[in-house]
Design goal:
about 300 residues; Rossmann fold; two-stranded parallel ribbon; 10 helices; 13 strands; globular; binds NADP nicotinamide-adenine-dinucleotide phosphate
């Protein structure tokens, strides 16, 4: 059975990868915490901080996975602007190390990147568009892509956009932030000028599985297929769940004072994934159909 080691397995994408891969793969889930958020005999769990070179080296030499999927990252975009060193250590240096060790032990490396590597002048972007990151997080993620490419190993760089979903003890992603505030009747301000292609975490995990099974190598966009601004997404969420839309005030990015500059028209074109491995992401409505039963249970 193909052996897959997943980093950041307690994060949103990491959790979905574990669930998606354990049917057909020998899964070794790793995360910083002592324990996995799931207790299951169906996969192995080992604690791993990807910034600890010795730990990473020893575990990979021991496990020798056929595939490493790196779902660990410092994902706080504004945090990266302030804590640059922490961001670089987790998002670049650790990826360089993974790539070097992957070469030594003969593993394929799947790494996850972002539409924030672009400047947002003319998204959505295809895989060949020229990156020009505006914020430190985007710069670091672009540097991590280059670290993977330069090692001469078999790799997949899966670029994605605004990942959302329900998971166990996950950080508040944009969908959960909308859902909780709207449900509680809290007024929110949401930008009308930041466009992305929001991605259900389950679809991203499924797309990564399909890419691997198809033997794909290189960069590929794996995101949702709808090009939406954040306000449009908020209105769709309110409408779907019957929440009061009047709670949502449309604003523009310059009214927000975010630490990190956001690309305004970002988002990704997914034609390559659709054509190469028949990737079919859910619409936001289909995603909400899927998430509804879990919203109470996982957020309790
Ligand atoms: N979320 C988005 O909107 C978005 C958009 C585009 C691309 N991406 C990319 O998608 C990937 C998955 O992100 P996600 O949405 O699943 O975010 P997430 O829920 O924040 O998951 C990231 C996980 O990485 C872990 N991590 C951070 N530093 C680590 C370290 N040194 N060693 C081990 N684990 C570490 C985090 O643990 P802690 O909680 O302990 O820090 C967290 O569990 C990342 O590469 C991200 O850059 C995300």
């Amino acid at each position: 059975m193909t052996r897959v080691l997943i980093t950041g397995a307690n994060g949103l994408l990491g959790q979905k990868l574990v669930i998606t891969f354990l049917e057909d793969f020998d899964v070794i889930a790793t995360a910083r915490e002592e324990r996995s958020v799931f207790q299951s005999p169906r996969f192995t769990y080992r604690p791993l901080d990807i910034t600890n070179y010795r730990q990473v080296h020893d575990l990979l030499e021991d496990v020798r996975p056929d595939v490493i999927i790196n779902a660990a990252a410092y994902t706080n975009v504004d945090g990266c602007e302030v804590e640059k060193e922490t961001c670089w250590r987790a998002n670049v240096k650790a990826v360089e190390n993974l790539a070097v060790i992957a070469r030594r032990i003969g593993s394929k490396l799947v790494h996850v990147s972002t539409d924030y590597i672009f400047d947002g002048q003319n998204g959505p972007y295809d895989e060949d568009a020229r990156p020009n990151p505006l914020c430190y997080y985007g710069k670091a993620k672009l540097a991590s892509e280059n670290a993977v490419k330069k090692e001469g190993i078999p790799y997949i760089i899966a670029r994605t956009s605004v990942v959302y979903g329900v998971g166990r003890q996950v950080k508040k992603n944009f969908f959960l932030w909308l859902y909780e505030n709207l449900k509680n009747g809290t007024p929110i301000r949401v930008v009308t000028d930041q466009y992305n292609t929001p991605t259900l975490a389950e679809d991203l995990a499924e797309g990564i599985l399909q890419a691997l099974q198809s033997g794909y190598e290189g960069v590929v966009n794996i995101s949702g297929g709808e090009f939406l601004n954040r306000y449009e997404m908020a209105v769709q969420v309110a409408t779907y769940f019957g929440f009061n839309k009047e709670q949502i005030t449309p604003i523009t990015t310059d009214q927000l004072n975010q630490k990190a500059t956001r690309p305004l028209k970002a988002g990704l074109k997914i034609d390559r994934a659709v054509q190469t491995f028949q990737f079919r992401p859910r619409t936001l409505t289909q995603a909400m159909d899927m998430m509804t039963p879990y919203l109470q249970e996982e957020m309790a």
